[in-house]
Amino acid sequence: MKDIFGKALLDYHKGNYTEDPVTETNISEEDVLPLPHLFRSYEEMPPLEQLALQNASGKVLDVGCGAGSHSLFLEEKGMDVMAIDISEGAVQVTQERGVKNVLHTPLLELNDETFDTILLLMNGTGIFETVTKVSTYLQHLKTLLKPNGQILVDSSDLKYMYDTTEEGGIWVPADRYYGELEFMMSYKGEQTQPFDWLYLDEHLFEKLASESGFQFEILARGEHYDYLARLIVAEYSHS
């Protein structure tokens, strides 16, 4: 897949900022992704992200690091951080911004490392792609956790995107879970192929986490159906 996201990050980082990438999904109109937002300081981050960073401890893995803002903040606090992303441009930007340990790799190909805290932020469930793949990702994440380690992940319940029935329910697709989206991104005349991106409501996420051997806890809820969750391997949760 073309690294349109990385190209946009590099343009902004190198002072060639002239426009923002545009995202589109199969259930929503085009939406602008403001590049300055990806280079924000801790003070500019939403409360759920700030809370996640406050709760990070020990050796940290920042999954889908983007421009590296979360990793940078934690490193400046003296923490040991590894940042990973599938975008080569994102990895380059994160390195150039000063994060020491950055890898260009998909999460499922990261092995032989363990962490006290794994961060999946800015709709961290997105990388799970579809509901059927969640257990694959959670089982792999489990192999990357130290004993008593934690996963801090945020997501949103997309029910607000759908029409409601007179009874207060929502009209959802018959053929898939309503948080399974197809995303496309375009930037400076180029466009990605559609890719799967998952938003999980907290009840389904708790069920899937439990089935994969995790204890699931909501740390906070945002103002717009969003939430921050902590996952701890169940066998360690009582020790």
Helices, strands, pairings?
Elements (H helix, E strand, L loop, with lengths): L3 H10 L8 E4 L2 E5 L2 H4 L8 H9 L4 E4 L5 H8 L4 E5 L2 H9 L5 E3 L10 E6 L13 H10 L1 E12 L23 E8 L2 E2 L3 E4 L3 H10 L2 E8 L4 E8 H4 L2
Parallel strand pairs: 3-4, 3-6, 4-5, 6-7
Antiparallel strand pairs: 1-2, 1-8, 7-12, 8-9, 8-10, 11-12
User: What is the H-and-E element order?
Assistant: HEEHHEHEHEEHEEEEHEEH
Under the CATH scheme, which class?
Answer: Alpha Beta
CATH architecture descriptor text: 3-Layer(aba) Sandwich
Roughly what fraction of the amino acids lie in strands? Answer: 25-35%
Which fold name corresponds to the CATH topology?
Rossmann fold
* Integer count of domains: 1
- Spatial order of the strands in the main sheet? 5-4-3-6-7-12-11
| CATH level-4 homologous superfamily | Vaccinia Virus protein VP39
* Fraction of helical residues: 25-40%
Low-confidence stretches: none
What average pLDDT do the residues reach? 95
Q: What structural class do the secondary elements suggest?
A: alpha/beta
The CA-CA distance between the termini, in Å, is 44 Å
Number of extended strands: 12
* Main sheet characteristics: 7 strands, mixed
